Amino acid sequence: MSRGGGKGPSLKDKLDGNELDLSLCDLNEVPAALPKATVLDLSCNNLISLPSDFCSLMHLVKLDLSKNRLQQLPLDFGRLVNLQHLDLLNNRLVTLPVSFAQLKNLKWLDLKDNPLDPVLAKVAGDCLDEKQCKQAAVKVLQHMKAIQSEQDRQRQRKLQAEREMEKKREAEQRAKEAQERELRKREKAEEKERRRREYDAQKAAKQEMEKKTKKENVQTRKPASSSRPAQPPRHRHSWSRSVLRVLLLVLLCVLCTLAACKLTELQRQPLCVSVNTLYEDVVAALQNHKTLQNMLQQNSQQ
Questions:
Q1: CA angle 89–108–124, rounded 5-degree value
Q2: Which of 96, 134, 223, 272 ranks highest by number of CB atoms within 10 Å?
Q3: How many other C-beta atoms are found inside a 10 Å radius of the C-beta of residue 242?
Q4: What are the residues facing 101 on neighbouring strands?
Q5: 23/44 Cα distance (integer angstroms)
Q6: Would residue 127 be called left, alpha or beta, if left means φ above 0 and alpha means ψ between -120 and 50 degrees?
Q7: 58-80 pLDDT per residue, tens
Q8: What are the residue ranges of helices labelled H in the chain?
Q9: Measured at the alpha carbon of residue 15, what is the angle toward residues 9 and 20, in degrees to the nearest 5?
Q10: What is the pTM of this model?
Q11: What are all long-range contacts of 125-134, with beta carbons under 8 Å and residues at least 24 apart?
């Protein structure tokens, strides 16, 4: 709070106990560093507004601001919770701050001769006597509490609307994100299906190429295999030679044995006797066989 124009009043001279009388001091502003008093009279001055720190005077019980040029009260005027008597006669007030509803101890109020809002003026009444001023305090407090409650409800509705709007935006965002995820998932599935078809096509083409190459290789090997002698007869021919060699070896052994039994002293041995007898029987059989062939030849010639 600051001093008014000129030298201003001496605050100590104006202080009488708990009462500070600054009326008729031609003040344009509320003086700074007001003494701590429960009663403050600032009537009949040229005050247009109250400083922001005026509402820190929470010890005030009675306040007289009548016959000034106040156009509005501070927004936090309701901080003066101990205020019981308030005189705002003959100012330029149109409305009261919503915080006015917090003046729960207010018992007396005068709002006459202000260009009040019609609704507020009707609630405040005329305040022509003590009873009407007391009724004005009660009714104005009720009215301001109703305004405060309505503003609180409006604020709550606004907050609720904002929350619902935020929820709606969040829901829309979630739906959008879900749609984008679904789209990405579908695109991914389509891409996977396309790649799978390409893989199947490449695999089929590779198998077809391998099959074709195999067929060409088979066709290429056929002439060579047809001109080449078969391997199994070669193996059979080698086997036949081996058998023939064994037979010749056996025959040689037989001839050696026969020669030994015929030409040596072993011819009287039992084994050689058997061999010589077998030899004579074979020779006889061969001769008979030869005689038979001759007879057959003669008959065929006749």
A1: 60
A2: 96
A3: 10
A4: none
A5: 6
A6: left
A7: 999 999 999 999 999 999 999 99
A8: 11-14, 118-124, 130-227, 231-263, 270-301
A9: 85
A10: 0.55
A11: 133/108, 133/109, 134/107, 134/108
The pLDDT tens digits of the residues spanning 162-183 come to 999 999 999 999 999 999 999 9
For residues 29-57, one letter each, b for 16 or more C-beta atoms within 10 angstroms of the residue's C-beta and e for the rest, the string is bbbeebeebbbbbbbbbebeebeeebbeb
Comparing CA positions, the residue from 88, 112, 91 lying closest to residue 100 is 88
CA atoms within 13 A on the CB side of 196: 6
Tokens of 145: 């509490």
Which residue, chain included where needed, has tokens 């991914």? Answer: 188
Give the three-class secondary structure for 191. Answer: helix
Backbone torsions φ then ψ of 94, nearest 5 degrees: -110, -45
3-state secondary structure 206-254: HHHHHHHHHHHHHHHHHHHHHHCCCHHHHHHHHHHHHHHHHHHHHHHHH
